[in-house]
Fold:
Amino acid sequence: MPTIDALAERLDEYLEPAQVKAVRRAYYYAEQAHDGQMRKSGEAYVSHPLAVASILSSMHMDHESLMAAMLHDVIEDTQVDKQGLEDQFGITVANLVDGVSKLTHLEFKTRAESQAHNFQKMAIAMAKDIRVILVKLADRLHNMRTIGAMRPDSRRRIAKETTDIYAPIAGRLGMHDLKIELEDLAFAAYHPMRYRHIKAAVAAARGERKALLQQVQIALEDCLDHDELPGLIGGRQKHLAGIYNKMREQSKSFREIMDVFAFRIVTNEVDTCYRILGAVHHLNLYRPVPGRFKDYIAIPKSNGYQSLHTTLYRAGSGVHTPIEIQIRTKEMDDIANHGVAEHWFYKNTNSRAQRAHNSAQQWIQELVEMQKRSGNAMEFINHVKHDLFPDEVYVFSPKGGVFSLPAGATPIDFAYAVHTDIGNTCIACRINRRLAPLSQKLDSGDTIEIVTTASAKPNMSWLNFVATAKASSNIRHYLKHQATDDAVNLGRRLLNQELSINTSSLETVDSVRLEGYISQHALTDLNILLAEIGSGKRLAYIVANALSQENSDIDGQNSGIGPMEIHGTEGIMIRYSRCCRPIPGDSIVGHINAGHGIAVHRNFCNNIQDIGRDKDKTLALVWAETGDRDFDVCLEIEVSASRGIIASLATSAAKDNANVEKIDVDEKDARLSVVNLEISVLNRVHLAQVIKSMRKIPGVIRLNRT
Structure:
């Protein structure tokens, strides 16, 4: 168990005496505040904040972070409040402690909701001071080290949260050593038996491979000595959680995972890294594997990580063994292991540490923007989980800018990474100067050009293939606001149509009566009322009845109201039903569906015949000018089974300027087939022309619109 004296002795190595004294004072304050409190392990509670501070001291964190570590549970678990800490230790330390503290004064329906709100609170605090997350990670690390005292169900819950959130965050901040330890501790807590089996297997495999590892290390040392290149060579040990995850995700055996030798070479200068790379590529009996070289020095990872990666192939005695090698400087190695924490060790004198810190700050700022766009805490934390990807691709803008994106990213992700407005107005893209679909996955080295237009808007289908949380949250945010705007506009039209029975309108309704209605129904403003009407949550004729001066003359029916015009270009609150697929020229009727606006059906649609009995929820509609918008139509075509008939149908549709969306063929027998053809047309006149042309095709026996 650490002691405050032992910690102070360690702090004397890099902190000023006054700063060490301040850390001591914070410890004694925490000791008094937690007096009488015990951990589940039976230790005095103050041992936990002392251990958290010790973890941060190993990263050479500043004295304010260490003081916050000592006090991080005081607000949450004692009678001391934030103001009390501020009076004793200053606003900075108080803010750090408050950022780490959970929300204890609010009640939540579920534990997941509570965790989401707490993480949301911490993310906002992180944006103000990144040290909040460093204190939290150290806190989580010590809790994981002592998790054995918890109940089995609690161990599994905490382990899963660590795996899903905290370990990936540590990785995103470049804190590799901490990430690895968190993952291994969580693996041991969640799958104790699997952990023990893999641990034993790894120990046995190391014994078996000891001679081969020594041979490779000697070959590397001889290579460096021959070229007089300075470098420290060490084996890179695979962690148990990483082995287990690779076995599970890649469906590989333990032997396949362990049959990869891993070495790290740490040298003094950047140019020496490249010279060492050239030397190891010319080793006897070893050859570089094409396509397995990565230069993270020239193009660092998003978390600031820098290194050269290469894979060699050893062929001998019929055994082919890949050898993974990382080459980096001592500074790069420190930053790779401790990430953003190195920023405080170097005190802004190291450009690489500063770059890692700036990258972390940028990511945290993106979290804050994401939080503002999210509807609630659960949605926010799902976006965060979505954003914590281990693998990256590096792509270029036409001007040569480098963008780091998660593996599986698409041009839509790139567009939003450039700017939100670029993503919102994206209509097409070019990858390496060739037109490509927006759903195409990007590869490292691709050059992406986004084509935009002011009239474009995000499509809900984009959510099916985007890979970044920034793109996903922006698309959802836009669609959510679009739905609200559409609902308000539709509600205004519906209400005005009902009010027109009494030659009235929303503009001429008595303002006092309108404000009274809004207040009576606990609505905040007129737009909320209109949105509820537009989304079908509130019926327009009831609202019109309440607002009208002629209440007694309104019977609550739609009779006498002229049909409402629709233009075919309305937003998502007016939907064209797929059961009957109405197109301009069809006789149509609307069904008001609570929460979904108006569904447009053809008059004789079987579905509208059933729901049309409820007159309060049906609305007469008529087509207005629809412009050049396309509408989907399904045709059922019975054809003789002849060569090229499908091609003839598609060609005929194309000649009449109808787009073929989908073709399905069902063989009735050896002589007849039924073709279900989905096409897009402008209106009934256009459809009639398409049908007329298709009926002239030899082999077409019967054609019907479904």
Observations:
- The two ends are 77 Å apart (CA to CA).
